[in-house]
TrEMBL record:
GO terms for biological process: peptide transport; transmembrane transport. The keyword rRNA processing does not apply. Residues 5-255 form the ABC transporter domain. One of its GO terms (molecular function) is ATP hydrolysis activity. This is Dipeptide ABC transporter ATP-binding protein. Keywords: ATP-binding, Nucleotide-binding, Transport. The keyword Chaperone does not apply. It comes from the Bacteria.
Length: 321
């Protein structure tokens, strides 16, 4: 199969308890229903505002979280319900890079130990070669050789993220899910870390799921892009196509918000009214209808499905049905 990962109708709900007896009163539908395939070696950008469920989707796909419903296939194998040692084995192939590199690095551990840890846990590399291997990794991600004996607080934000990337790479995984890996970094450092990820992706033939809240960040990184809104995937397309010809009104609004360097390209900025509704009480019908500039009378009644409108361009909007 050309797909490394196949996600079918995935849901992740969190129960909400309330009242004196703390009974279950509802669900937060963090991921409501997403179907998504990742091709081997591609970078897939998953975009949406904060709270849209993209981080939860990333963590459920990698099985850091248990799905509520749906199916996840990794190299054709069903990993939806893996537990214990099988789940542990999956970690060799699937790794994460987190948003806050400092919070995800143990401050009491030397960088050498942080990056060696996965290799030791999975008994990879011999004791003699381990240190050399880790030093080579640190160098590859652009850290100085003496980083091995230093602690996370001795590094800048961008360098800490490089440590996180080295750790994720140590086991030579097939898939890396990077959850907003640059959004905590200074703008001047962001593109350096993005370039590094892009280089490593090619060099190690990684499949990369790149999560971001900003379409402009994923633009140069991604082969394909998926846009999430309130736990739903509303549009998926080739990266160039989604910028050139966005179909979903939400994607159109996101793209109109990207500053255009060339003033001749100025298109009308679409301002969305209101806030993202609560995922505990999502709107009926199309989840975007309370904010949609193109809303039609039946949009509050019928929930659109993600359907193909062009080759490999899928959109969930009643305008195209
Ligand atoms: Fe807007 Fe209706 Fe399309 Fe939803 S289905 S995005 S409300 S036009
Ligand atoms: Mg997040």
């Amino acid at each position: 199969s050309k797909y490394l990962l196949e996600v079918q109708e995935l849901k992740k709900y969190y129960p909400v308890h309330g009242g004196f007896l703390r009974r279950k009163v509802g669900d937060v539908k963090a991921v409501d229903n997403i179907s998504l395939d990742l091709k081997r070696g591609e970078t897939f950008g998953l975009v949406g505002e904060s709270g849209c469920g993209k981080s939860t989707a990333g963590r459920t796909i990698t099985r850091l979280f248990k799905p509520t419903e749906g199916k996840i296939l990794f190299e054709g194998r069903d990993i939806t319900k893996l537990r214990g040692s099988e789940l542990r084995d999956l970690r060799q192939d699937v790794q994460m890079v987190f948003q806050d590199p400092y919070a995800s690095l143990n401050p009491k551990m030397m960088v050498g130990s942080i990056v060696s840890e996965p290799l030791i846990n999975y008994k990879k590399g011999s004791e003699n070669s381990l240190k050399e291997e880790v030093i080579a990794l640190l160098k590859r991600v652009g850290l100085p050789e003496d980083a091995y004996y230093k602690y996370p607080h001795e590094f800048s934000g961008g360098q800490r993220q490089r440590i996180g990337i080295a750790r994720a790479l140590a086991l030579k995984p097939k898939l890396i899910v990077a959850d907003e890996p640059v959004s905590a970094l200074d703008v001047s450092v962001q593109s350096q870390v993005l370039n590094l990820l892009k280089e490593l992706q090619q060099e190690f033939n990684l499949t990369l799921l790149f999560i971001a809240h900003d379409l402009s960040v994923v633009k140069h990184m991604s082969d394909r892009i998926g846009v999430m809104y309130l736990g739903n995937l509303v549009e998926v397309a080739d990266a160039n196509e989604i910028y050139r010809d966005p179909k979903h009104p939400y994607t159109q609004a996101l793209i109109s918000a990207i500053p255009q360097p060339d003033p001749r390209n100025k298109s009308e900025r679409v301002i969305l009214s209101g806030d993202v509704p609560s995922p505990q009480n999502p709107p009926t019908g199309c989840p975007f209808h309370p904010r949609c500039p193109k809303v039609m009378p039946h949009c509050s009644e019928v929930k659109p499905e993600l359907k193909e409108v062009n080759r490999e361009h899928r959109v969930s909007c009643l305008l195209y049905e």
